[in-house]
Design a protein that fits this description.
Blueprint lengths: L5 E2 L3 E2 L5 H11 L3 E5 L5 E6 H10 L6 H4 L13 H11 L3 E5 L5 E6 H27 L7 E6 L2 E10 H12 L6 E10 L22
Parallel strand pairs: 2-3, 8-9
Antiparallel strand pairs: 1-6, 3-4, 5-6, 7-8
């Protein structure tokens, strides 16, 4: 996720005034700013909603420290996109300050960043599965399997030559970066679990008689 976040995030300190916060949100076209201490560690976040609540109440000091939501909900640069999206959904926030191992602010990731990434990644996932997983790794003809990707969910439809390839294909697709779920609708032409005339339970398997 480090390559997706915006570095040099816009920040304020506890004493920053209401009007200055509003000006920053408008100037940078953002919905929230992180409030940091003297060491650059996020201590809270001031969002548009926080400003609106303060404006309606007209109560108390109009500084970042007084109106911020604290503690700040933060992300780590090593997080996956899925982790960031899940945190935003669970905590109902649109932006996450990203902090390093010392909890110092190093960037910010927004919901719009994730949306754009998912839109781009669907096509990238599809291409990687078709070219790398199916064609190059498994030697499957591109026409044999249809790969549909929607918001990270992969649907595999078609027929593979052997039954054992189905589980392998699904497992390899699940390991592709950005894949959230794999829906298996694959069939197979031959059950290669039957070998040397015997089924896996040791019973003898006889070929079906020739017609006529």
């Amino acid at each position: 996720m480090a390559d997706l976040m915006t570095p040099n995030a816009v920040t304020v300190q506890r004493g920053t005034q209401f009007r200055e916060i509003a000006r920053l949100l408008d100037e940078y076209d953002i919905t929230a700013v992180a409030v940091v201490d003297d060491d650059g560690r996020p201590v809270g976040v001031v969002s548009e909603a926080d400003l609106l609540r303060r404006q309606l109440s007209k109560a108390g000091a109009a500084t970042a420290g007084a109106i911020m939501t604290s503690p700040a909900v933060v992300a780590r640069p090593e997080w996956s996109v899925v982790e960031a999206a899940r945190t935003m959904e669970e905590r109902r926030v649109k932006r996450l300050p990203v902090v390093d191992d010392a909890d110092r602010l190093i960037g910010v990731i927004s919901r719009s960043d994730l949306v754009q990434l998912f839109l781009r990644r669907d096509r990238a996932i599809q291409e990687e599965i078709l070219e790398e997983v199916l064609t190059r790794t498994l030697g499957v003809a591109p026409s044999a399997v249809t790969v549909d990707v929607t918001d990270g969910t992969v649907t595999l439809t078609g027929a593979l030559e052997r039954k054992s390839l189905v589980a392998i294909a699904v497992r390899l697709c699940e390991s592709v970066d950005g894949v959230i779920e794999v829906i298996d609708r694959l069939t197979f032409d031959r059950d290669d679990a039957v070998r040397d005339g015997r089924a896996p339970d040791g019973t003898t398997v006889r070929p079906a008689p020739e017609p006529g």
